[in-house]
Amino acid sequence: MTVPRLQLEQITKRFASVVANDAVALTVLPGEIHSILGENGAGKSTLVKIIYGALRPDAGRILWNGQPVQIRSPQEARALGIAMVFQHFSLFETLTVAENVWLGMSGKIPLRQVVAGIRSKAAEYGLELEPEREVHTLSVGERQRVEIVRALLADPRLLILDEPTSVLTPQAVEKLFVTLRQLAATGCSILYISHKLDEIRALCHQCTVLRGGRVTGTCDPTLESNASLSRLMIGAEPPRLVHRQATPGQVALRVRDLTLEKLDRFGTDLHGVSLELREGEVVGVAGVSGNGQQQLLAAISGEDPRAEEGAVELFGQPIGRLGVAARRKLGLHFIPEERLGRGAVPTLSLAHNMLLTRDESLRALGWIDRRALKYQTAKIIERFKVKSGGPAAVARSLSGGNLQKYIVGREIDAVPRVLVVAQPTWGVDVGAAAQIRAELLALRDAGTALLVVSEELEELFEMTDRLHVMARGRLSPSIGTSAATVELIGEWMSGLWPTGPEDGPGVSIGEFP
Amino acid sequence: MIRLEPRATPSMAMSILSPVIALAITAAAGAALFTALGKDPGQALSVFFLEPFNGVRAISELALKSTPLVLIALGLALCYRSNVWNIGAEGQFLMGAIGGGGLALWVTTAEIGMSRWLFFPLVILAGAMAGAAWAGVVALLRDRFNANEILVSLMLVYVANLFLSWLVFGPWKDPQGYNFPQTVSFAANTELPRVIRGMRLHWGTAVALVAAVVMWLFMFRTFTGIQLQVGGPAPAAARYAGFSSRAAIWTTLLVSGGLSGVAGAFEVAGPMGQLTPHVSAGYGFTAIIVAFVGRLHPLGCILGSVVLSMFLIGGELAQSRIGLPSALAGVFQGVLLLSLLACDTLIHYRPRWSRGS
After folding, report:
1. What residues pair up with A9 in beta bridges, in sequence order?
2. Which of A377, A397, A412 is the last residue of a domain?
3. A144 and A219 share a domain?
4. pLDDT, tens digit, for every residue of A209-225?
5. Is residue B216 part of a domain?
6. Is the residue at B11 inside a domain?
7. Nearest-by-Cβ selection for A356 from B3, B233, B237
8. Residue A45 lies in a domain
9. Mean model confidence pLDDT for chain A
10. Does the structure's ipTM exceed the value 0.85?
11. What is the extent of the structural domain holding A199?
């Protein structure tokens, strides 16, 4: 019998109020792609942090190649040959990609060599990455690429990936899977943390399912169905999304031939972007991050009010130069992709964070009606099942998924006329994601116009009525989602779409009636 | 080994206990220091910690010293929470002193008969306007030319200082003052109303306390107050919400400058009674420590200013009573600040004993 690469016995970890891991056992063989499946808060992140030495277990044993080991720090983990790609990136924003990778390395290697190493690794695995760009200019997807390449540079024996595919194109996911299989074939074990059942079934050899900090089962995912995995993971099947036919009304938001120069040197210029969004429909924008989505979103939300007055119209009213608050008054709400620091202030309570976009609890002279504010916050926490310490809990204390539920809830609860959403379910577990999507669709059915910018194609196919694709600062014409295929959208993602007529939203392929 | 684990929510008990523990550590460090210097630690500690509170007169002096510190620190706390780094409160204080002193001088020389209670609000207004105008220069340069407010506000301290010197060496000099750089002693009706007969404590202290309560309400109970606190820790969230960063710069600087100006005016119309080049005992800079010791919280600023004035007074007493160097007050300030910052960790983290390496 082969000696397992990694074996965990009775690993237990308690936090202030919860037991995050309760006597968890895990066995990973050499060359095995092993998935850890579980909802947010099931204890996946805690477990991998223990393996990576970022946390110490309260009890239990870790065996590495059959030998008991104490992993006291990530440095020790790396010395053993463990590399990790975190879900929350640990990158210094003001440094370049190469400098970030360089900082994480032990030993004295010239920066030049690191740059070359990144270039070759990135090319080897088909990951587009510019080593000399500064990290703060990168989108979420690009930042993840930095982390993946950084991990691969160490030639690990065990690679831990935490939700790695959420920001990749379908083709890139396939490419990554090829890479991972290649890597596994060389004997490197892979620990793959995810909640995407299809991916796990396509990629992994073994699967350990966590729920509430305990192992609820181990199985061979290739022999399981999505439904059976779901049952193990959440104890029930996720609610199925009911997507009724859209009944689009009048044009709510119109972007007309929007051309904008980038604000910083690594941004993307927008070239003649046009789109039309009607009441009661969901329009999706697909595309790999860093293709101008951030710039488009900023121009629509008002964070970047440099557009021509008439380039952005809300119900026929030109708003291109209005500020964020003015646009919000007109009924345009926005959910950004960064939750902590943009969608919410980390150090303020959930109640005070309401005031970023909601003013219902304000009285004369800006006096805050604390009771009304608390009530409003508590209502959202309850309706969207936000796990938190209540309205007084600071935003920083919430997990990513719960904070997202809070932010989405805050904007949905405002009943906006137009809602623009970026990455609605990024890093959110199945149950919460289904809930968020259902709430967004319910909003659509109530007549709101929704624009969803996402890098998860699955999500766009599930939610939207029409799809655009963004590539290199240009926007494709729209296509009815029911007529679109993953292959077609993947092709459009590289900028290859048919050019349509000059005016209007573009060609109609399976367009709504 | 002690390990620190993040708490789910900040500990309320620790927020209150932290300064107390810090004070205890400071006292313990002081006792060790005095013993090493060959002094009776009990006596020395009582000079620092008890004497400043011993009797109505001592408390009156303590409150008097705290008043400008509270006023200035309140404004600074607001600035720092909004990421506006006003380092030049000293300059705004001096301009307030000039504004208040100028008004008092005019009332004195023109022999205007008005009651102290009528002059009181006028001198507040004069000080606030002068201080706010001085801070307004900083806001203007930052807003229009993106000039660094740290440098500009600090440089303006020196300008204010020289302007004050020019006034008291020149046009405002007392003609009968044997050429000393000072104005005439102000008329009795320009003196701030006293709280207790025969003591220097004036009603400006009450103004400072009211200002602290108002600032507390402003920071945590009004929309503008919350808005101002978003730009500091999360500028992207401020942009997302549509909160104006320009408004934040102007509001915080004008409020802070105004409060510092009032502090300056009180100092002139209160204990000084005339304008000299030495109006300030470095209040504008000490208040920076006060703001941080009070953890940028208005009520904390009150406590912080009491503690720091205690050290200032205790330092003077230690020098005259038991012959300890006056620099000891500075040492105490340093130890206190250090242990406070260390103890503040406990608000967000829970210490846990664990066995093992």
Report:
1. A61
2. A412
3. yes
4. 988 888 988 999 888 88
5. yes
6. no
7. B237
8. yes
9. 86
10. no
11. 6-234
- Answer whether B222 touches A (CB < 8 Å): yes
Residue A434 has pLDDT above 90, yes or no: no
Residues A428 and A311 in one domain: yes
A490 φ/ψ angles, rounded to the nearest 5 degrees = -60, -40
Q: Which residue of A has its CA nearest to B355?
A: A58
Mean pLDDT across the stretch A292-312?
Answer: 92
Q: Which of A325, A355, A397 comes nearest B9 by C-beta?
A: A397
Share of chain A above pLDDT 90, in %: 41
Name the nearest CA neighbour of A439 among A454, A456, A457, A452.
A452
With a pLDDT cut of 70, the percent of chain A lying above it is 91
Same domain, A312 and A166: no
Confidence of residue B121 (pLDDT cuts 50, 70, 90): very high
Asked whether residue B353 is domain-assigned, the answer is no
Q: Which chain A positions have a beta carbon within 8 Å of B295's beta carbon?
A: none
B350 contacts A72? CB cut-off 8 A: no
Q: How many domains does chain B have?
A: 1
Cα A273 from Cα A473, distance rounded (Å): 8
Cβ contacts from A onto B, under 8 A: 87
CATH number for B287: 1.10.3470
Q: Which of A346, A356, A362 sits opposite B233 (nearest CB)?
A: A346
CB contact under 8 A, B221 and A367: yes
Ranked by mean pLDDT, which of B72-76, B168-172, B184-188 comes out on top?
Answer: B72-76
The structural domain count of chain A equals: 3
- The nearest alpha carbon in chain B to A329 belongs to B242
For A369-419, the pLDDT digits (tens) are 999 999 999 999 999 988 888 899 888 888 778 899 999 999 999 999 999
- Searching chain B, which residue's CA lies closest to the CA of residue A367? B222
Computed over its alpha carbons, how large is the radius of gyration of chain B? 22
Contact A366 B234 (CB under 8 A): no
Distances (CA, A) of B105 to B165, B174, B188: 16, 10, 11
Residue A501 has pLDDT above 80, yes or no: no
Task: Give chain A positions within 8 Å (CB) of B349.
Answer: none
Contact present, A255 and A312 (Cβ < 8 Å):
yes
Report DSSP letters for B118-140, one per residue: HHHHHHHHHHHHHHHHHHHHHHH
* Domain closes at, from A396, A412, A428: A412
Domain encompassing residue B203: 55-305
- pLDDT reported for residue B160: 96
Distance separating alpha carbons of residues A195 and A331, to the nearest angstrom:
34
CA–CA separation, B225 vs B328, rounded Å? 38
